[in-house]
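Recall that a protein's primary structure is simply its ordered list of amino acids. Everything else, from secondary elements to tertiary packing, is in principle encoded there. The following example makes that idea concrete.
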Amino acid sequence: MTVSVEDIRKGLEESEKKKLLACPYPKPYPENPVNIKAILLGCDPSNKHCQDLPYVFAIKSSHKIFNSFVSGILRQLGAVGLSLENVYCQNLCRNYFMDETSKNPIWEKVAKLWIPVLKQELDDLTINSTIPALLTSEVLYKVLLKKEVPAKRAKDFYSSAHDAIIPIPAEENKLGRPLIPFY
């Protein structure tokens, strides 16, 4: 299922459309996934430095400003026995925004338009639905959670407070696969 910025713009008000940038999307990594053990899910590629990232998470970017960011991701994955070779990396929102995620008033609205696209992509890649998605941000958790399930705070998961279990069961989220807070 291919979706363009123009497709996303159709679901927005005129004033909101100006917040989307019409740049090529960074590609998921790896391009031909095999033996995937987890999905690393980001919010979107928006950043204040460039709009020409070759892959999500600035993987293989020529912009040196992202080196420490990529190194951090590699360390996190390594800490749980994973690497870029066995993780499928993708953003929920493929498009760049004028504003970074935490400062973006339309992010949630646009993210909801991308959820069925991501779900279909993962299904088309035949990534088993028992393979978990590692969420790199709490905003991903909140937008992916089904409405009838009360949201938990990040610290609840890490302290097992308020019945916050990891992984978040597939039946409690819109991707239909286990979710693991990874932030």
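The longest strand covers residues 38-42. The CA atoms of residues 38 and 131 lie 6 Å apart.
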